[in-house]
Design goal:
The protein is mainly beta. Helix content is 2%, strand content 53%. The chain contains 2 helices and 53 strands. A hairpin with a 3-residue loop joins β35 and β36. It is rod-shaped and about 155 Å long. The relative contact order is 0.07.
Amino acid sequence: MRLSLKARIILLMAVAMTTAWAAPSRAVLADGEIYQRDELESSSRLASVTIANRSYIDLKSATVMPGDNGNMLYFTLTVTNGTGGTLSFLDYWVKVYNKSGAEFKPELIPQDKLKKEIPAGQQVDYTFYAPVNDATVLQDLWFQITRWDYTSAELEKPIGSIQFPQEAADVWAPETNLKTVQMGGVPVQLEITRWTAQANDNYISPKLTLKMTNKGYASIKLPGYQYALRAANGAMYPLEIAVNGDKQTLQPEVPVELQLKAVKLPATAGADGWDLVLTQTLTISNELKLNAPVTALKVIAEQQDAALVGATVDYANENGVYELKVDKLDRMPWEDQDVLSTNLSISHKEADALPFPNIQAYYELDGGVRVDAKLIKTDQSVGVPPGTDVHFQLIGKIPYTYSFASTKLFLVEKVSENATEEMAQFTLPPFEINMPVIPYGKTQSISGIGRNTQFAPRWINMFTDGKSNLLEVQLETSNLEKRSSTIPKLTAYFKTADQSLYPTKIREVKQKLNPQGKALISFTGKLPKGVDSEGLRLVIGESITDQHLSVGDEKADAYINAVEMELPREIDGPNPTVKQVNFYPYTISLSNISTWLDSKELRVNFLYNLEKDSNYETNNEGSKLVIQFQDISGNMTYEQKFFLETASDKDDLRLELGEHSYKMTVKDTDLLGKIQSLKQYRINIYHEFQGMRKQLATQTMDWFGVTE
């Protein structure tokens, strides 16, 4: 136990071990060349050395660890005291030889030097280290147990030895990914539960999950442990703990999963498998620290294939362990392209909120075509709260004519300006443009923190100028939030039965809606005169601009969560009277209609009653109501256009809510020439939008009479 005799040799070795570990020859460290007594059947364990009545010494464990400047032997002896008194370990020593007779002098680790006695009926472990040459293998060693004997000339007496057999394969620790070891004075079960390796050129970047379960009765912390992958040829590659391992606390029977990773290891290194080696830093002196082995596990977890839709993948970085899940996949039409869209949810089980990872994503089509995807956060959240899913959409675009058979989604985190780290892979099922169809009478919801909304078609209007048609679909929207909220931006297309798409323009309600408040917004689009509107549907989704949900006057460049909504039928033909004429959300009625005429002037007097469904916020931009007088012969037509409720100019005509009287005056020196018969005339009502009209009502009346 005289450190000074070996300090120079050990110092050189320790410096090497605290940096990168070199790869010795295959003979130095063969697969499984670790002796671990507790893991073997009793018939395979090495024999004990008896030191007193019912007292003996066992070789508990032994292994050789490589370093840049040589190898280090680590071994542990268990001393069992079966006597009625104490035993002094100071009376014993161990010498290590190889089969060629070379001696390697072991030293006790500092903390075990304090364990000088073994109480009656107890067992005590003593751990040693010794530098050995590069050619040393475990099976060539034998351990001689010596007792100090001051009556002999040598002052010592050999009392027994422990030696590996010539064929030592039966005494090596079994290759397993599950075992229980002592850590921090308590038994801890270790298990490798997951293994992935991202291949890139001639390198691999592996990740593995080490599950640690405290099988004792007291909590412990895990400071000072290191982890490395060991190749079959003995090469050692340090692993980084993705989450701060030194802050982990193991509570009894509460599993903790450590995420371990390495970057750019030679792809050929693991051709014959890997071991996970756990070591612990031992301080020998101020100048010397050693990485002593704790245990080794065989990496026998199968390579994890890309996850499927609905599966959860764990990803760990310095902030914590995230749970990633893909639960939806769409291919949606967009102009002359299609949008690939995937729902991604992120959650975690940490105690505190976590920041968003800097996620980048791309689709891989048929194993070779890469399509970059934009990440869209659809919840109003500044982080990931504990136990709460935060939702994202990943969208990419491809030509609408492009077909493919297989798809993968890759998620990576940008960890620096020039570096990324793979987070997860998902295998997506084959899919095509097959959006959900919402029957008329059912609603579609927008779900997301701070933006819960519901909408459905309410009314349909077809306007015309004789050359083309302008279709308007009114959409009833409801705010389902508990606070005032703006209506999420929407983008829509009209889709015909033959799959043709026609773009639309939106007429929005921009003011915020109170909780449970409602609004009418509308989408309009021009259709060629000959297009069959039978079976027309509204393809509608949430607008996206660049990499965020559209706001304000931003122009959308994509959409998400698109559906096809069945539309109501338009009411056929105009109303046969000018009472209770509906053009939702308004209803107008004309009454007490009378005429007055002389040779140069015509007056049409009437009362109008304009009503509105006050449950809705509306936008009347572009809308007018037209009241038209027409002589039955058709030679004389006069009309006036009215804004609804408000007008942009004070001189513009407008209709106000409620009942009001109005007089239309027509001045024309040739009135009597145009009116050939004073028997009947007609009142027509039109809804005009963007210069195109829809006839709402028509009624024929007698000249100079007064209607009810």
